[in-house]
Amino acid sequence: MILRKEDTKRGSWEHFLLRAAREISLSEAQYEKIDSRYSQLESILSSSNDPLLAEAHIFVQGSMRLKTTVKPVSEAPEDLDTIDADAIVWLPHAQGAEAHEVLEAIEQRFKDGSRVQEGIKPLRRGVRIVYADENPGFHIDVTPARAINGNSEEKGEGKLEVPDREMGWKASSPIPYSNWLQAASEQEVTLESLVVAKSERSIDAATQDPLPDYQDYLDQDPLRASIKLLKRHRDEWAIRTNNADHRPISAVITTLATHAYLDVVAESKSKPLQPLDAILEIVHRMPRHVDYTELGYQVCNPGDKGENFAEKWNRPRDGESYRQAFYDWHANASSSISLGLESFETADSFAKAVKESFGMGPAFITEVNNEIPGDWTIPGRQDGVTRNSLSMGALFGGASGDESSQAEVKPVERLG
Fold first, then answer.
1. Cα dihedral angle (249, 250, 256, 261), rounded to 10 degrees?
2. 296, 312, 336: which is the final residue of a domain?
3. Range of the domain at 242
4. Rounded to two decimals, what is the model's pTM?
């Protein structure tokens, strides 16, 4: 089948986005380094004599559990220049304890047991262990948790609550949330596959779940590829617009993208989609799943409606800043996810736009262009500008007919 020029351009941009999602994923060495540090948490907790921490069970939560972690942006300001990992310490003996008691016990245990260059940093709902001596640096945020009254499940399953230094105990259900996202990702959009490549203890000792296997993390379905691209774009956007303090949190992006993905799954059953169409639609549909009730703005954990990831949007003093930052970011992301479908005047202008949006440099663009068929339109260029046509222009000492006309071409309207 002979593809139209505009179809090859869409295919080229689709390949670019999927390669970009893989490029911003952690390397195997980075992943293993985090795994080794994460594994030390068990021994630190097992050395405790505090009855509150007895029989603790540790498991990873957040982007590491969801397999959506991305590399930090190079030369970023603080809090955007390190890899973020999150762990839950489930405490079966914390029923009846005050939130501040549990937080103090966790903080003291890691101050006594950790051997890191920087001091243990108290957080609102736990502590942060910073591994600044690594490159890139990373940190593990450790949050204690207990089962809610009536939840008899073991090892962090079901609905939990976590201690908050200002609010007491707050709802949090990380395992039901990750189970929801995993189930969503396994629902297939009608399109081509996106997959790239897939002891005895004492009763008081801590136990620990392992991190997901690295290959499971690296393999990409349409949903996780979209989330990784959106998170990298969010970081680049926050730096460029000085919005680091109010940038959309990953839980909001991930939840809205997953809801949108489920919309796309349902619609694709009657109207098959290409992978690129699925990604564009996921981004476009995200704001539809922000709810507003008498309680304010809601982006809730589907596994626990008591956990609202958009709770900062409802703050009296700076809630408007969080809300506005989300909608400003989403408008920019909707444009950026379609950059390769535009016709830029020059390769340099396209490379600049990609760098601003996703942090990818010219070398990566060249690498990806060399992977697509030579007769396909290159992402971000006028229909018909291919690697072959550019080579022919160089061979005869000038630009090809397609390339020479670029000075007269203006960017087309962005999709999304």
1. 160
2. 336
3. 5-197+204-336
4. 0.88
